[in-house]
Design brief:
Blueprint lengths: L1 H5 L3 E7 L2 E6 L11 E8 L5 E7 H15 L6 E3 L7 H12 L3 E3 L8 H9 L4 E4 L1 H9 L12 E4 L6 H14 L2 E7 L6 E5 L13 E2 L4 E5 L13 E6 L6 E3 L14 E10 L5 E6 L3 E4 L2 E4 H9 L5 E6 L2 E7 L6 H12 L6 E6 L12 H7 L1
Parallel strand pairs: 5-6, 7-8, 8-9, 20-21
Antiparallel strand pairs: 1-2, 3-4, 4-14, 9-10, 10-11, 12-13, 13-15, 15-16, 17-18, 19-20
Helix pairs in contact: 2-3
């Protein structure tokens, strides 16, 4: 509001608390494409910001797909467990509004007892979370919680460890709760695949199959489609929810549909004989350690199997691992065991600890912070 008083070329349209939405009266803004409806941020492993250009058709088609495979109807009630500026949180909002369902707005976190009182008193039927959310749920003894209205859990926002998935699935089974594991990217508005709860035990670790109106396939490094099962290639998605493209500056806001409904995900995956997909890692999440190709996702999975939260990063010829631990661990021994597992020399590896890994609002590890400070 002080800004409005200072600049005579700003007209206040709406004021909410300390925030004011203003119209700029002097001059024109950047030219916008007629189909552009929303810009959402995304980032690579280096944390370089990019804006994803989404159309109304992208957002609406994905909301309709989610409504279809989750069976969302007017009786459903969700809660804002994820921020709206995160594509997963946005999809929860849009899918429920599209179905005429309800969503409870709160900025309380899982650690706040009031969050769970709101869950129970408002008879919330579904809860969405990233892998970190489910780690918190276990620490809060989710198996003891009395939430009789809760009937659906959804997980996306990164690959969840097999051990954690099994624990959550077992609790959900005992409580008669459906547990959907899903896969997506902001570039797809954001959902691309889902695994039905009935396949969770026999296909654990799979992202499932494509969402309604979408298609998934694999391509090799020459761009040829992979038809044989269990062959690793880049995961490609096609569907009406694929974004228009990226915006790296205001000049890109006038651009139209550059991707034409096809998204190269940058993820390496395989497809089994029954048509279920398994993501094996990011094509960019690999380091060359003295000629040996090392998957950073595989390093983190190695720790996750031992019940340890770790973030792997670094550069060619030097792998860094930051372990989330309140006490220092025998780092030399840790390095030797990991080096043996990854078949690299211990001299190319640094293992460190910190009490809590840095995370973004979405709950994902903030690798850019680790690169900068460690």
């Amino acid at each position: 509001t002080n800004l409005v008083a200072t600049y005579s070329d700003l007209e206040s349209i709406m004021i909410n608390g300390e925030y004011s939405l203003c119209r700029h009266l002097g001059g024109n803004g950047p030219d916008l494409h007629s189909e552009l409806a929303m810009l959402l941020t995304t980032s690579g492993s280096t944390g370089s910001p990019k804006l994803v250009r989404l159309s109304r058709k992208n957002i609406l088609s994905n909301a309709q797909s989610i409504v279809a495979y989750l069976g969302i109807d007017r009786d459903e009630r969700a809660i804002t467990s994820l921020p709206f500026n995160y594509s997963y949180g946005m999809s929860v909002l849009n899918s429920h509004l599209n179905a005429g369902a309800s969503i409870l707005l709160t900025n309380r976190s899982f650690f706040d007892p009031l969050f769970w009182r709101l869950m129970k008193s408002n008879k919330i039927t579904s809860l969405a979370g990233v892998p970190y959310s489910y780690e918190i749920l276990l620490k809060l003894h989710f198996e003891r919680m009395e939430l009789p209205a809760l009937r659906t859990l959804t997980q996306a926002g990164g690959k969840m460890s097999i051990a954690l998935t099994e624990q959550i699935a077992e609790i959900c089974n005992s409580k008669d709760i459906r547990f959907f594991t899903m896969y997506g990217q902001t570039e797809a508005s954001p959902r691309m695949a889902y695994l039905e709860p009935e396949y969770l035990r026999v296909k654990i670790g799979s992202i499932g199959r494509a969402v309604p109106r979408g298609e998934l396939w694999l391509e090799d490094t020459q761009g040829n489609r992979i038809e044989q099962p269990d062959q690793i290639g880049e995961l490609i998605f096609s569907g009406p929810n694929v974004a228009l493209g990226y915006a790296l500056s205001h000049k890109d806001l006038i651009l139209g549909d550059e991707w034409q409904g096809i998204l190269r995900t940058g993820d390496l995956a395989r497809q089994d004989a029954e048509g279920f997909f398994y993501v094996e890692g990011r094509s960019s999440r690999f380091l060359k350690i003295f000629g040996i190709r090392v998957s950073l996702d595989a390093v983190e999975a190695w720790y996750a199997e031992r019940g340890i939260m770790a973030a792997a990063y670094g550069h060619d010829d030097h792998l860094k691992v930051m372990i989330e631990a309140t006490q220092s661990c025998p780092q030399d021994e840790e390095a030797k065991q990991l080096a043996a597992a990854m078949q690299i020399h211990p001299s190319a590896l640094t293992v460190s600890t910190m009490p809590v890994l840095p995370r973004m609002n979405s709950g994902k590890v903030d690798y850019s912070c680790l690169h900068t400070k460690h």
